[in-house]
Amino acid sequence: MKRPLKFSEHFGLKTLVLLAVFCITSCGKKEEEHDAKYYEKIKVEGQKEAELTAPPLVPKPVGDRPAMKLVVNMEIKEQEGEMADGVKYTYWTFGGSVPGSFIRTRVGDEVEFHLKNHPDNKMPHNIDLHAVTGPGGGATSSLVAPGHEKVFNFKTLNPGLYVYHCATAPVGMHIANGMYGLILVEPEGGLPPVDKEYYIMQGDFYTKGAYGEQGKQPFDMNKAIKEEPDYVVFNGKVGAVAGDKAITAKVGETVRIFMGNGGPNLVSSFHVIGEIFDKVHIEGGEMINKNVQTTLIPAGGSAIVEFKVDVPGTFILVDHSIFRAFNKGALGMLKVEGEENKKVYSGTIQEGIYLPEGGTIQNMPKENGVAKSIVAKTVPEQIKSGKELFGRTCFACHQSEGQGVPNAFPPLAKSDFLNANPSRAISAVLHGLSGEITVNGKKFNNVMTSQNLTDEEVADVLTYVYNSWSNNKTTVTPQMVKAVRAKPAPKATGEH
Amino acid sequence: MISRIKTAIFFLLFISSLCAQDVNMAAIDGGTFVPLYGATNKKPVKVAPFKLDVYPVTYEQYLAFVKKYPEYSRSKMKGLFADKSYLSQWKSDFDFGKNNLSNAPITNVSWFAAKKYCECQGKRLPTMDEWEFVAMADEKRVDARTKEEFNKYIMSWYEKPNAYANPIGKTFKNYWGVYDMHGLVWEWTADFNSIFLSGESRKDKATDKNLFCGSGSVNATDLMNYAAFMRYAFRGSLKANYTTRNLGFRCAKD
């Protein structure tokens, strides 16, 4: 009795599973084929010139417009730009920006692509659009000499967010110099409307000089082949999406970022500090993943990320391969304005001392922050221990040579803010510092946390900083720190 | 008999020395070398002895030519032989304007115009092999292509904007006494389009597997390939009626 029952159960289940699998695969396949053919057959209505935008902006959504003939006029320019403050680099660009102009199309559009190579350029170029179905993605038809123009047509068959790039030899060099951008193929009826849309692309750069080395920096082929970039940046340069140029939104708005990765070499672990992506179009395609912390963007690939911003503040965009963010420039900012929402995020509500049982740090309370040692150190001794302290505590933000991170963390090297007022510097270390300050002519608006250090430690680290990187050689003594500590802490400006 | 031949030779020498253009030509001994492209199976190519202009042709020289042959002036030039940007940087037909130095290399000239210019001087355009043969020399050696610094110098020009506005003769004098093969402008060659690069370089790669096969780091050969590849890729993008701002020429003679 048992046996036949089991058999029939088995049989039934197997058949069902088989049937289901068959149905899913066959139905799915059939639909896909239908789509491609369907889009190929879509008739276009009317013609217009495509709106092209430089990052971080994108053209207007296609909405529910019919497929049409879209004329794209793309000009290639070889031009000098700034990789970072004081660092010059010759970029090769589509449309005068890195990444190149954003192209927004709809599935079924017939694109008439005009590729124009500026007469002053030295190099022949072409374009490979990943949205193109055809040899070389257009590259075989578009090699264009300086001072000339090539025209080719293609029909967009697959919705998605695609990378385009130059594919003229040496391909790696053309891409490394900034020749990439994004072309969006929206589905019928367009992507769902959102409040803010932005265009950001990561790229790695290889210069003869190390990160931050001033002056004109030529491309370094050797580093490019070794895949050891000096710069990993968003939108072509350090700080292109930070400070004054940060992207913005208001509390309650939904932000959509068309995020690409031009490479040439690195894969991006794209992450927004303090946000969770509500939706990610994985690799720029149709599949949507929800509630994503970090999304992987391949070189020559993309992702569309969407998230609603619930609380105000500055949200940092990073490549979470994190040394790239803090040491090579892969750092951007999203500034959100609006009402606080303490339910979602409270801010610091309590600050206390944590004493692990049997811990060695016994004299942490601030009142006890008196110098432990009775014997006063010499200045060289102070510098020596200050240097070690700096390496542990300060360097993460202010960087090894005190150069800081443009638009995020102010420099300590040759810093007018620092040199002007040692008491203020002591206070900053003791109590933290927040709100807008101006250092060497650049504005910074960030938060430095208070450091739990002894008077002697504060004296040592500041003496080290003051005696390094062309600062004014002030010697800070534990007595000076003690005096500042005795005064009431200044009211933090940025915190509520 | 012998004395007559001697006289004839003397007379010929005398005539050739009268021709000022020849003074500014360097004698190239010729030899064999393996060019990056064009040599089937990487066999050496023979270059016969010839003469090459020491400098690229300048504005001043080209103006003299245009005055002598007005059909090559900007407004008279036939569209078949030069596109619209032909001499577009000039002020007028017979005036190259104040923005262009008289001793800067002439650019925005088509292959047809360059060829004609050379013919009118009793010369010709150098072949690509001849040009490449001379271009592989640095100050001291005939073939410096494997020297890293040499290749870096060549590649650095790709990043210098507006080099075409510089006067001739400011780069280095090479082994043959020739200037400006690198660092000033691209130059036309007689058979510039004899090697076909489709522009889809990744496809071209299949025809030359050695070119970009990745070694762990760049050695001098890779750099040499990159530097030279740029020239071949540039030539591959041209047509004979094209004119561009960074493309000039110089003449050769047997």
TrEMBL record, chain A:
Belongs to the multicopper oxidase family. Its EC number is 1.7.2.1. It comes from the Bacteria. It catalyses: nitric oxide + Fe(III)-[cytochrome c] + H2O = Fe(II)-[cytochrome c] + nitrite + 2 H(+). This is Copper-containing nitrite reductase. NCBIfam families: Cu_nitrite_red (TIGR02376). Its cofactor is Cu(2+); Cu(+). The keyword Iron applies. Residues 381-469 form the Cytochrome c domain. It comes from Flavobacterium aquicola. It is an enzyme of class 1 (oxidoreductase). Cu cation binds at H125, H130, H165, C166, H174, M179, H320. GO terms for molecular function: copper ion binding; electron transfer activity; heme binding; nitrite reductase (NO-forming) activity. The keyword Iron applies. CDD domains: CuRO_1_CuNIR, CuRO_2_CuNIR. Homotrimer. PANTHER family: ALCOHOL DEHYDROGENASE CYTOCHROME C SUBUNIT, BLL4482 PROTEIN-RELATED. Keywords: Copper, Heme, Iron, Metal-binding, Oxidoreductase, Repeat. GO terms for biological process: denitrification pathway.
Automatic annotation (TrEMBL), chain B:
It comes from the Bacteria. Keywords: Signal. It holds the Pfam family FGE-sulfatase. Coiled coil: none annotated. InterPro entries: CTDL_fold, Sulfatase_Mod_Factor_Kinase, SUMF_dom, SUMF_sf. The keyword rRNA processing does not apply. Residues 29-253 form the Sulfatase-modifying factor enzyme-like domain. Residues 1-20 form the signal peptide. One of its GO terms (molecular function) is formylglycine-generating oxidase activity. SUPFAM superfamilies: C-type lectin-like. This is Formylglycine-generating enzyme required for sulfatase activity.
